[in-house]
Write a structure and sequence with these properties.
mainly alpha, two-stranded antiparallel sheet
Length: 259
Amino acid sequence: MTADIAEFNRLAVPGLEALTKLLVGGAADQAPAPGDRRPFLVGWGLVAALHRQAAAVVALHGKGLGHEAAPNRRLMVEYVAHLQWLVRDGEDAVDCMNKAHQFKHTKLREVADDRGYQYDAEAADTVRDAVIPSNPANQYAQMNTLTKSLGGGLFESYVGETQLSHATVTAAGCFYRESDDTVELSLIPTYGIEGDPMEASPFMAFYLLFFGMIAFNNLMVGSPWTDDLKTIGDVGGLAGAIRPETRESQTDDGRDSSD
């Protein structure tokens, strides 16, 4: 592990602890009015799941399984992207997520019917018959399209982690080396580059949870975490991640006025 990565990981530990304290600090008190609450509720589910994935990444890293945490890091990228999508597109994003759920639920039901599985037909009918309006945000149901539209390196991170999250030649190639004279086989992954990127897993967990919580902060009334997040970022190696004008540029419902 390089000295820089070790330092980032060291800073990530108290950073994750500070973020956890924010999450258990009463976000429900900052929920929008009932008619405007859907993005907030979906956002809370995503940020809570994001927090658990961060814990899983750190736990795997602690057992020497940073390489195997790639699916968890990839899922963290998905959660962050969807949180940022909620901030940008609000109700349209929720409608699109529901429409995607309806489509996948229909496919699942078809498989269940084909295999003769039992399920709650009334509940399944409710999902099937729900009328969900279409809108231009539907294009972002695809992760590649969504992460490209959001920028900030999300697309590159998603594609990179995907290579290690599936049965790809990239993932397989981490366990062998071949030359004209020898074949080296290993049970431990190596990447053939200076510095093991998987050693940065704790910092990546902190980084992704931090930016996911910045997004959720914008879904709460008054963006109450702004000052705390700025302090956590400054101490944890992410100075400047929250702009000084963030609070002034937000509307009363917590969304950026430029959206």
